[in-house]
Amino acid sequence: MVASVIDQPSTAAPVDSSTEVCVSCRGVVKEFGDGESRIRVLHGINADVYGSELTLLVGPSGCGKTTLISIIAGLLYSTEGDVILFGTPQSQLKGSKLVQFRAQNVGFVFQQYNLLPSLTATENVAIPLLIQGQPRSQALVKAREVLEAVGLGSRAKQLPSQLSGGQQQRVAIARALVHEPRLLVCDEPTAALDAQSGQVVMDLLKRVAVQPGRAVIVVTHDSRVFTYGDRIIEMADGRIAEPGSTQH
Amino acid sequence: MSWVAWKMLTGDRAKYFGTVFGVAFGVLLISQQMAIFVGLMRRTAHAAIDVRDASIWVMDPEGKNVDEVKPLSDSDLYRVRGVEGVEWAVRLYKSLVRARIDNGEFRQSILLGIDDHTLIGAPVKLVAGSLADLRRPDAIIIDRPGYRLFWGDGPIVLGKTLEMNDRRAVVVGVCDTTPPFQTFPVMYTRYSQALGFAPRERNQLSFVLAHEKEGSDPQQVCDSIRASTGLAARTRGDMIWFVIGFYLRSTGIPVNFGITIALGFIVGTAIAGQTFYLFTLENLKQFGALKAMGVSNRRLIGMILLQATIVGCIGYGLGIGMTSLFFESTQGVTALMGFYLPWQVAVIAAGAVAVIIVLASMISLRKVLILEPAVVFRG
Q: B54 in a domain, yes or no?
């Protein structure tokens, strides 16, 4: 069962060169606007994200982190270059194929949680399974198990408005993991939280989210969480400043 | 995902009821104003509506409407009877008279003189008295609002008297009729009696009511009457529309009322459409999150259309219910008597709501469809 799978401590081995590359950015350029108002936000990004690792994408505000993960997650198309996702060039995934790919392979954790306010914690967690077409009753059972795994079993029936920020982010993490995605993209998951809640969330990501074969990317400019990263990619002005330094 | 759409719609009770009541209020405005307008126009043709037995109305060709006629001569009745295809033809008198009761109070009233022998044109629904009593000397039957105007709200007592053209009239019955446009009392009496109650003219015959022979087409018989007599002949349905058409063309009331309806329609549309549009806009971030998680545009369209259908159906039901309640609760009010919600108005209101909701959905959908899923990463 999902819960039993993700409840185990991370089995990620210490990072070495043999770790599988899950996401590979090759000369990714992103421009917004037309004509004279055209702005180049990413200037030919080359970077690899490895499975079984928690990769931190860091850098100052406006350096292009969010744009890069939006492209990696298939929410934006690059202007030039390509992203290879688990061996499949993203340029080959257009329209509904990309939407389907996202639904099956990508989990999202947002800075503002983006939980549906009228759904309970369990119902929110069940959404990715419903998107995949699973029957509601089955999806809710599975969602409940994942909520238990993130320590919120007792809050299963509560609405987001009845939960603290940290708890809401843990629900969001459960939602991002419930369909067992191969790529987990987290955008500033601790930015809206106090230090203690941020630590709980990062602990959870490190402990539960990092799994063999799964790549976890966390965008952050919060230096307090740098210690959680297995690998850090540093960006500055739309370029890679430090291409994947490893820790440990 | 239909379940998620339903939960999104109903999760915030205040927002949900606000949206539904927005639509309901729009429906109420549209249907209530339209029904009042239809009722008002119907009142103009009250005389033609209430004469159920005759399928053909004959009048002077210069007649403008049912209240503005040039009297026919008695020989015209016989000429009509002689037309091929006419089964029978009888007299009908209609004019305005001043009626006075014992205490000196008087009211302008509508006097209808129906055929002495057949009583064709008599009121269909009597609430007191008997139609046969109309054959008694000086007998009249008065409509219920007219009775109330003269003698107040107490129990109906037959035998009350009033005076018209210095002639005594005795109330032998009280009836319900289609209320007239002018809200005057309506009185029925025999044709011969009516000539005494009304000021004398050389010709007195207002209309000839006729019926076609079995198997004949009323329209063809009308054509024959026109060709043979030179008089204007119309089927009952055409007569109703002839009168309504006159009021639509010649008075400012329908135009002004039409503007009120148009405003009701616009305001109703704006309220209903805007509330649903705002509902979708407020959920835009949530739709963005769903889109990022892999919900296709097709599915999102389905979700929004489902929400629109639910809001539309419940809002329509409530709105039409409130309109019906309004007309039900005002049936006892003399000035509003006879107004009701025609099914055609209910259908038009349903169509209007469908258009409003579809338009609001389409505008909202456009926002959702062009929504960049990456928006969810922007704070």
A: no
